[in-house]
Amino acid sequence: MKDTEPKAKRRIGFSLILNIFVIIMSVALVLYFFFSPDGLRDLISKSPDTIIWGWVFVAFIAFMMNIVMDVFVTFFFIHKEIKSFTLWDSVKTSCVGQFFSAITPSATGGQPMQVYLLSKMGISAGFSTSCMTQKFIVYQITYTFISIFAIFLRFDYFVHTMDTPYKWSLVILGFISQVGITSLLLIISFCKGLSKKLLRLLDKLLHRLKFVKNPDDKISALETQINGFHDANKNVFKDKKRLLIYYAFVFCQIIFILICPYLLYRAFGFSGANPVDMICAQAYVNLTSSLIPLPGASGIAELAYNMFMAAYFSGGTLKSAILIWRFITYYAVIVCTAPFSRFTGGKNSGRKKAIDDCLNEGAKAEPTGGADGDNEPTAAES
């Protein structure tokens, strides 16, 4: 008997088109940097001893250490309140974030999938969202200050490299977007009064935009989220020592990311360049790459690397350096973290009640004016 019901038409969504485009572009770039003149194939065939693979391995380990640092930061943020959250849970959470950040535009998929995974572990979406947002704020503040420091520390090199208006526009826009995001996060997290004013302005704007559905619900949800950020900030800043540990680990994480080009520079047998100069140059690369809302900033990342690293990789080694750098910092990350995406499937782990009890006990243990001898004294008592 034939099915008389009409088949539903399959719609090709924008995300599918974007993913296909990125895959084609990524494959094309890999083929170009491998097979084009002075590409990796030419370099290996003409001078097989040019690349010191031991240094390439060191560069790979260094970049993977940024994931290790992220694992510990994630663990510190969550384990402080939820003692049942293990280091293995943190590994899963961090790797899921790395994988979905790598395959989504502007790395927007990482945090939502981490929150989803944590909810499967029984951790409430509100608490996990606050933790992931606080972690992102620490990362963003640290990275922005490193970028500013890099520009002023090697300003002469920066100006010398920016020899065309095109390069200036890319880097300046990247820098403005980086500072703008950080400033907005700081306002939302610390300036409650200003946050409310911005919400009122946004509320008026959404009500004027006729195509926006249920603007009141959206504003209400955003207000709840912002209040959660403020509460989370209070908890984070209660422990100054732990906060310093967060920033120290994130600083190390960023340095591991930025040191990779210098290690590849040594892998090609070069020496004499200042590691700090190359760290600053990579900071400029990342600033420029942050502009493009494509997974892995495909295309612009290679262009930015070519702009800022051409002075270091001479003798036809630049294309090979770009290809190896992208394999280490992007493709290898996808391959290494992809197996962890399976943890986002299945049902919840059944730990929700134990975790909720833990959070409730933590709330009851908050200082109430110094009545409990174990609590820290209030300012008045001091």
Brief account:
The protein has 382 residues and is an all-alpha fold. The protein is 71% helix and 0% strand. The termini are far apart.
Distance between the termini: 84 Å
**CA-atom Rg in angstroms:** 24 Å
Global shape = globular
Low-confidence segments: 4-8, 352-382
Strand content: under 5%
How many helical elements?
16
Tally of structural domains:
1
Computed structural class: mainly alpha
By DSSP, the count of extended strands is: 0
* Biggest sheet overview: none
Report the helical percentage: over 70%
Average residue pLDDT: 79
Order of helices and strands: HHHHHHHHHHHHHHHH
SSE layout:
Blueprint: H1 14-35, H2 40-46, H3 53-79, H4 87-103, H5 110-120, H6 125-153, H7 155-161, H8 165-190, H9 192-208, H10 215-238, H11 240-258, H12 260-267, H13 275-289, H14 300-309, H15 318-337, H16 352-364
Helix pairs in contact: 1-15, 3-4, 3-6, 3-11, 3-12, 3-15, 4-5, 4-15, 5-6, 6-8, 6-10, 6-11, 6-13, 8-13, 9-10, 12-15, 13-14, 14-15
Describe this structure in words.
By secondary structure, the chain is mainly α. The chain contains 16 helices and no strands. Helix 9 (192-208) runs antiparallel to helix 10 and helix 13 (275-289) packs antiparallel against helix 14 (300-309). Residues 4-8 and 352-382 have low confidence and may be disordered.
